[in-house]
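Can't attach files on this board, so I'm pasting raw text. These are the components:
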Amino acid sequence: MSAPIVTAFREGLAKGELLIQQCGQCGRPNMYPRYACPFCQSERLGWQKSTGHGRLHSFTILRAGAPAGFENDLPYALGVVKLDEGVQLLARLLPDADGTWDGYACDQVVEFAPRGPNASREYHCAWFRRARQA
Amino acid sequence: MSNAWPLRTRAGAPEDPVFIGVGELPSGRYPDRTFIGDLTAVALRALRDARMKPRDIDTILLIPNLHSFSDQADLIFSRLVEELGLAGHAKASFMVHSGGSTSDNAVRVAAGLISSGHARAVLALQCERWGSADLVEMITMLSKNGIPGEWELPSGLQFNAIGALIARRYMYASGSSAADMAAVCVALRKWAQLNPNAMYRGKPLTVEQVLASRMVADPLHAMECPMLADGAAAFIMTSAENAAHHGIEAAVRIAGSGGCVSHYSVGQESNLAVLGWPTAARRAYEQSGWGPRDAQLAQIYDSYAAVTAIALEGLGIAETGEGARWFASHCAPGGSFPCNTNGGLLSAGHTGVGGGTALLIEGVRQLLWRAEAPRQVEGCERCIVGGTGGSYMDAQVLLLERWLAGARA
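---
Top answer:
Structure tokens for the assembled complex are below.
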């Protein structure tokens, strides 16, 4: 059984939306979603849709030792993304068109990838990709 | 600081808590050793080192294992009390747990119990059977626990990936090269050649070998990742008064401690190249009245080279951005500031929660002047101990100093 905050966040992902928890009392955004606002302890919590823009604080490409259930994903990339809204989260990173993550670097601008990897399986986590060069 | 919190015990005070002995078994793969057998053996080694008998102990502090839930239950339900002949005598036997920083917190608990009078003498001990456990089972256990199941587990996060996220950000922020990071591992391996308990004794390592090993989680090569090991460690603490009563001349006291829990999940750490170290260090130095220049050596958690490099900088031992290069050029045997003189987790072996315990007791052993030559740091008086647990959730600092019975503050 999932908590309502988990269900709501995952339903957002399924619709191609990255939801950020927002406190109905103090108005501050909060990630990952929590059961009470960590700033004012209010339990009146809602959601806002993220712009999906942020910077990559760090990332790695796991090539061996995947946890059970992720063996077939290898190699795969994980990153910590700092969103423009001032919150951060752990996410999966899509490879570039060449199938590698060679073009990724720390502090690079990244964007939420609403459709994820188009994989047959459903991922309950956010996917990001390198932002198109302006 | 307006919120400074001084230590309530003083050097020379009768209730001042001190370390009086340590015990350790070799780390590595020892399928013929047993969990309870190792705990008994390491307890007896520590007692001999402290010139005590089991009945001099009234409190047992248990440092957990990560290999087996049922072995953990044996510990929690006081098996060691029976094994050591303390049934009907021991006042309390219980566990302290904060992952890799458990030993630092166990010291705080023991110190509080001793200085307040709730314990007379505390035996803290640990055994891990990681080296002989099923590797796939351990990898899965380590990957699926201790991260938020609702938010990070669905991404496929894993423990080497956590180390890699920290290493990547550290290398980016500091401009450290892959060779700079590998050189930290090589320096640790040199210490392991001098430690009879180290898993990698007799197996020297070069930067070239590290960089030629396969990439596991960019930027981490296989030889930059710790090897799971069997191992056991123990230490004994009591009051300065009781140590003197037992005729103990040399002991180790706690000049101060500081800590900072900076996150639970790696995805929520605001700066992976800094972590909680600057805050923890400031708190510890404020409490002790001495700083990084006053210590002769350090023992700092090193499950990955970047973890230690970041700590060296936060502790003010190395300049910001120079932690990895400084470690390689100053902290190896013969260097001006010896660090992780047992070889660290990376070369003595990663004994789970015990990795930090092994570093702690190596610091105590050095200050007791009981390390084997030529590993002993001659005449050392002060040691900085740094620990961290979970997904590097906390930075814990213990400032230890040699203390002689009869000395007064």
